[in-house]
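Thread: sanity check for a docking pose with S-adenosylmethionine

Original post by kr_44:
Hi all, I'm comparing my docking run against an independent structure prediction. Below are the sequence and the ligand SMILES. Could someone generate the full complex and paste the structure tokens? I mainly care about where the ligand ends up relative to the chain.
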Amino acid sequence: MTDFGAGSRVFTSDERTISAIAKNVGIPKKRARFLFRLANYLNCKNILELGTSLGIGTSALAVNTKSAVTSIEGCPQTADVARNQLKKFGLSNVKLKVGEFEEILSKFIVFSNKTTNNKQQTQYDLIYFDGHHTKEATLKYFKLLLPAAHNNSVFIFDDIHWSPGMEAAWEEIKTHPEVRVSIDTFFLGLVFFRQEQAKQHFTIRL
Ligand SMILES: C[S@@+](CC[C@H](N)C(=O)[O-])C[C@H]1O[C@@H](n2cnc3c(N)ncnc32)[C@H](O)[C@@H]1O
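Reply from moderator J.T.:
Ran it for you. Here is the predicted complex with S-adenosylmethionine included:
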């Protein structure tokens, strides 16, 4: 496989079994259930995921077939496994894009300046950031995708306490002026943008 992310603390070679990827990289069942429930509760129709891996989170987000899920994966071999799995589950509401995040995003998202509002902007109800767990990359994708958020969107960041860099990125995201409510569930960090809401931070153990 091709590793685009922050590298692995577990794998030392670029040959990995699917079961080892599922165990060490894929999200656990509890987190997948949470993603499913949250997307369902917030009635998310347009969903974007950065980091498909084997498609565990993708499947959880796409089980509600009223939603349209776009998921991006950099490693073509891993994406092939995810594609087969999604097909097996009959989840035809997923568009899987293969390539580096920034490159793919620049191809299919029209970025515009929110204040000038002069371009047709792709907006997402939910964006799940689960790839490239470094401070710089996390903040880069957050800022890149801010114009794709509307007032009721939620951004979900995985592994916010994985490293000092991820902690620092999460601190900066929480205090960003466009962010109103942030929730730290330990593994996941959730941010909401409802401008009518007072700025508040919560810590909840799921
Ligand atoms: C933690 S895994 C995603 C787990 C997945 N969301 C799940 O539900 O099981 C991160 C994935 O993101 C991909 N990735 C990391 N950085 C990337 C980048 N800059 N561009 C494209 N893919 C990237 C990796 O190849 C890896 O498969």
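The chain is about 35% helix and 20% strand. Hope that helps with the comparison, let us know if your pose agrees.
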